[in-house]
Every structure is written in structure tokens, then in C-alpha cells.
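Design job #97: recover the sequence.
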């Protein structure tokens, strides 16, 4: 790890660019202070209550420190899977306008001919990195990209100055190998070129190492930086150094029913959800007591590794925080921590530790053995039952349009954020972050035109005034925000949400919930408030039409679509 300090940085500043006086150094420091650095940290598949400020038993002291210094949004919503969420996060434009309404691996053939169903960022949007870089920011990215891996689609071509990018849905955290048979190799890139990982690679550690290296490379020029840090944690394969996983030994032995309720109570006590919030059991969840002792043991260990991976990510975030303190930039940095979507519930590892990928595991050398779960060579996934812990007290998980799929933590601290230690249930959507970050950085929005070409206008709302305590609300009660992914649909308006989960079992109906008072979506209000329900359904149809949302083909199944190439 690099050894850095503010004194070294200042010495380099003097020798490298020949500043002849302390007045010049002070001027550069003042200019930097007027324009904050931005660190955007994105966890992968992290559930709503997976960090300690939101009621988790998992130790996340560094994220908790950021929460204590700023604002935690408990009613923040994103997309139900990774690529659409990342595309909206980095452009401020709805996924059906930026080219990524679904992950490219899951797009059915019937939709791939549509111009807005590419699965990768189109040329009609300008990224946050491009705008910040044009405004004088250094722009760095280390981690999972998943928005394209041809040269013109890599982050190095979309506004990022220095990059380490993993281009696939996921990859092993210990070595350069694919995690699914749909990939021949794990596609890693550095500054737009094919990249080979070091032998001592562990994803969370490496991403922070490279982020520090990139920042350090320009630390002397006085310009602010934007560092986008999209971790692989805790996307499957869920892997962590054993010393982190073992910290949680025995923590999950009582099973998901007990842990869900513990999380719900802790979230209430922390002010993350209203007092008396109810929670439903996500359909299809197994009864813990119906499992054998061996099955329970394996499930509990999966969660211990998951907790260890979150814990390790937090520790490495702390290393970045300490580095910024050492070079005197911590107080001048806006930190944003969130997740791309809710917890992963795919059932790729069975209750007995076997897998639907067992034959491929045998070929490539993966295993899900209890003794080494989470270590090098191991494939771990928590599955749908444990995912109900990570999402607690919300219903469902990743891919679904229910709260467990879309509602995740959002923590913000630093310059421009006036409150500290505050939790708010003000509604925020993923597209709101780009315009807000631009405002905090003092960089203008492109307004629908860039380099002489017409571009998609930002659809998100700048909420920097709310962060500065100069506004009471972010979205008006009449503002309708639509959402669709893989046939799962939702629309938010004021405190209310309508939702339709095409992928839900034995439930093919729209529902209406007040998600401010009922985040667990336990009380359907469709029959009690028919006028509101009808109005919001009409709002959704208007959204779908104006954004060219295509219908899903009959019989569409996301998992089958992802593994289509393997079968063929």
C-alpha cells in the first residue's frame, strides 16, 4: 500500500511545478477547497439493512462514521439489477432512454433490435464523469463497470481519466476467472486496455489500492477529483478472507426468520423505518425448522461469509478515508455510499451445498464446500432465503420491483451537506444523484446539448438545496416517477407506489402501497383508494408510452435468457 502524507504531497507540489512561495500553495489549496472532491462508493447487491446505521449486525464502522457526519436516506430507490442502476446513476437519465433497460445478458431477442434496448450506454447520454472532467475534475473509476466492453463503451471512453474496470456482470474476487459459464474469461481492463490482475488480488483491497494510486498521481496539481468506486462486494460469488467471515461465526445459526425480525427491530430503533412497521414473508421462503442440521449449518455459513465480505469492504473504505485524511483532503470530500440494487436472491447454490452449475464447477475447479466457503476456489451465494435477511423488513429482493429489490441505503456526507447524524425518509430516486453531484461540484448540466449534438436531458432532480437544509422536499406530491425492468413495473408519486411483479409466483396484479408508512408493503390500498390507484395506473401508462417501454415476450424468464448461450 502506498505511503502518503500531506507533507509529502506538499513537497512534491513545490518540486514538481515550481511553486515559488507559500502564497501560491495557499492559493492552490483554497481553489481546491472551493470545489469539493467527490467519492461515489457503490456496493453491489447490498440489502437495505446490511450496514450498521440501518440496523445490521454486520460491523461497518467506517460507513457508520460517514452516516454520523451526514445524512442517511431511508427512502432511496434504484433499479432492480445492476446495469440499469449504474446507467441511471452515471447519467441522470431513465434506463429506457440511456440504452440500458435491462442487463445485456438478459435481453430477449425480440427486444434487441430496438434502439433503446442495447444493454449498454448509448451515444445519446453524457456521463457524470464526462461533465465533471470538462469542469476541471480528475475522474477515476475502479471496480465493476458492466455498461459495455468494446473500446468505445469502456469507462475510459466515457469520461474517466484513469480506470480499472471489470466489464461483466461479476467475476471472482480472488483471481482472474469468470464466475458463470456464460463467459469464456473474466474481462478486465485498465485505461481501456486488457488487464491482468496481480497474484495477490482481492477485489475490495485492489480497488481501494488503485483508487489511492490514481488520486496520489495527481495530488499535487490542486484540481479536485471524482472517484467512482463500484465494489464487487457483495455480488456472487460471495467471498471474503476467512478472518472476516469467522468474526460472524454462530451469528446466523438461529435462521432467517429470527434474523429478519432482529433486523426489523433494530431498523425501527435506528429510525430507519417507522415504529410498528410490519413485514411480510417473501413468498417461496423456506421454513428454517424444515431443514436438516447440515443444511442449516451450510446456510448459516453462507451468511457469515456474506457478513465478512461487507465487513472487509468497510475496512477498505476506511483505508481510503484515512489516506484522504493524511493528505488533507478528507474534509473537502463529498462521500456518497449506496448500492446498485437490493440483495441477490438467485438460487445457484442448493440447500445441500450442491449447485445447478455443478458440472461447470467440476470443469473449472469451483466448489461450495463448507470448510472453505468464501475462500479462493470457493463459489458462494446466499440464495433467496438468506436474501430476506439482507432485505429485511422489506419484501422480495434483487430483480423484483418490490421494496426489497429497489430500496437500498444512501449515505451522504461532506461539503454542501449541512446536517450530521440525520436520517430522512424523503423519497430519492437513482437519477437524482447525477444532477445533485454536479450541483455540489459547481459544474453545469449539459442541458440537452453536448459538443454540438443533441443529448437526452437529465430526468433526475437536483436535491442539493435539501442537503443544504434550504428545501423541505425533493419531489412534489404530483411528480410521478415510473420504472420498468424485465416486465417488473412500479410508479412512485408522493408517499405512494404502485407495483407489478411479472416474475412473482401466483401474483400477476398491480398493488398500491404507502411506502412512507408501510415500507414492508404489507397493506395493499388498491381497493381502499381506487381513485389514487387509477390515477397512478394512468401515470404509469403515460410513462411507458413516452419512454418506449416494450412489452416482455410471452414466457420470458430472466435466468433462462442469461443461460441461453450456454444451452445453445
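Job complete. Output follows.
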Amino acid at each position: 500500500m502506498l505511503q502518503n502524507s500531506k507533507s509529502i504531497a506538499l513537497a512534491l507540489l513545490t518540486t514538481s511545478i515550481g511553486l515559488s512561495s507559500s502564497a501560491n500553495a495557499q492559493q492552490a489549496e483554497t481553489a481546491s477547497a472551493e470545489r469539493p472532491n467527490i467519492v461515489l462508493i457503490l456496493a453491489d447487491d447490498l440489502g437495505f439493512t446490511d450496514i450498521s446505521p440501518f440496523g445490521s449486525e454486520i460491523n461497518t464502522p467506517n460507513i457508520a462514521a460517514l452516516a454520523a457526519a451526514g445524512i442517511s436516506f431511508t427512502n432511496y430507490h434504484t433499479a432492480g439489477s445492476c446495469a440499469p442502476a449504474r446507467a441511471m446513476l452515471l447519467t441522470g437519465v431513465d434506463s429506457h432512454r440511456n440504452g440500458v433497460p435491462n442487463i445485456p445478458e438478459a435481453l430477449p431477442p425480440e427486444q434487441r433490435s430496438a434502439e433503446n434496448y442495447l444493454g449498454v450506454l448509448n451515444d445519446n447520454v453524457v456521463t457524470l464523469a464526462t461533465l465533471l472532467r470538462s469542469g476541471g475534475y480528475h475522474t477515476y473509476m475502479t471496480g465493476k463497470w458492466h455498461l459495455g466492453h468494446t473500446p468505445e463503451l469502456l469507462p475510459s471512453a466515457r469520461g474517466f481519466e484513469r480506470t480499472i474496470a471489470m466489464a461483466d456482470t461479476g467475476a471472482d474476487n480472488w483471481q482472474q476467472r469468470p464466475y458463470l459459464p456464460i463467459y469464456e474469461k473474466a474481462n478486465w481492463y485498465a485505461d481501456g486496455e486488457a488487464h491482468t490482475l496481480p497474484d495477490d488480488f482481492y477485489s475490495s483491497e485492489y480497488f481501494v489500492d488503485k483508487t489511492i494510486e490514481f488520486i496520489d498521481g495527481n495530488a499535487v496539481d490542486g484540481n479536485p477529483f471524482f472517484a467512482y468506486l463500484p465494489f464487487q462486494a457483495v455480488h456472487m460469488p460471495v467471498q471474503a478472507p476467512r478472518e472476516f467471515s469467522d468474526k460472524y461465526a454462530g451469528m446466523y445459526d438461529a435462521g432467517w426468520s429470527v434474523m429478519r425480525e432482529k433486523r426489523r427491530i433494530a431498523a425501527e430503533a435506528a429510525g430507519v423505518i417507522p415504529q410498528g412497521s410490519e413485514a411480510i414473508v417473501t413468498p417461496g421462503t423456506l421454513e428454517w425448522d424444515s431443514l436438516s442440521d447440515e443444511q442449516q449449518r451450510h446456510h448459516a455459513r453462507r451468511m457469515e461469509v456474506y457478513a465478512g465480505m461487507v465487513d472487509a469492504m468497510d475496512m477498505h473504505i476506511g483505508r481510503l478515508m484515512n489516506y484522504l485524511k493524511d493528505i488533507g483532503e478528507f474534509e473537502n470530500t463529498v462521500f456518497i455510499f449506496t448500492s446498485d440494487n437490493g440483495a441477490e436472491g438467485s438460487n445457484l447454490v442448493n440447500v445441500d451445498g450442491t449447485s445447478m452449475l455443478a458440472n461447470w464447477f467440476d470443469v473449472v475447479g469451483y466448489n461450495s464446500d463448507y470448510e472453505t466457503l468464501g475462500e479462493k476456489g470457493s463459489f458462494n451465494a446466499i440464495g433467496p432465503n438468506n436474501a430476506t435477511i439482507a432485505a429485511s423488513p422489506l419484501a422480495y429482493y434483487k430483480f423484483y420491483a418490490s421494496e426489497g429489490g429497489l430500496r437500498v441505503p444512501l449515505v451522504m456526507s461532506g461539503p454542501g451537506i449541512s446536517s450530521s447524524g440525520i436520517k430522512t425518509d424523503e423519497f430519492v430516486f437513482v437519477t437524482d444523484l447525477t444532477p445533485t453531484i454536479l450541483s455540489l461540484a459547481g459544474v453545469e448540466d449539459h442541458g440537452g446539448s453536448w459538443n454540438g449534438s443533441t443529448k437526452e436531458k437529465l430526468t433526475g432532480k437536483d436535491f442539493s438545496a435539501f442537503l443544504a437544509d434550504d428545501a423541505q422536499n425533493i419531489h412534489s406530491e404530483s411528480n410521478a416517477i415510473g420504472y420498468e425492468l424485465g416486465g417488473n413495473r412500479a410508479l412512485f408519486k408522493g408517499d405512494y407506489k404502485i407495483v407489478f411483479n411479472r416474475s412473482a409466483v401466483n401474483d400477476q396484479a398491480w398493488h398500491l402501497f404507502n411506502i412512507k408508512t408501510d415500507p414492508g408493503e404489507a397493506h395493499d390500498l388498491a381497493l381502499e383508494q381506487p381513485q389514487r390507484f387509477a390515477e397512478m395506473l394512468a401515470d404509469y401508462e403515460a410513462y411507458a408510452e413516452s419512454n418506449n417501454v416494450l412489452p416482455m415476450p410471452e414466457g420470458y424468464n430472466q435466468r433462462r435468457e442469461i443461460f441461453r448461450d450456454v444451452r445453445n
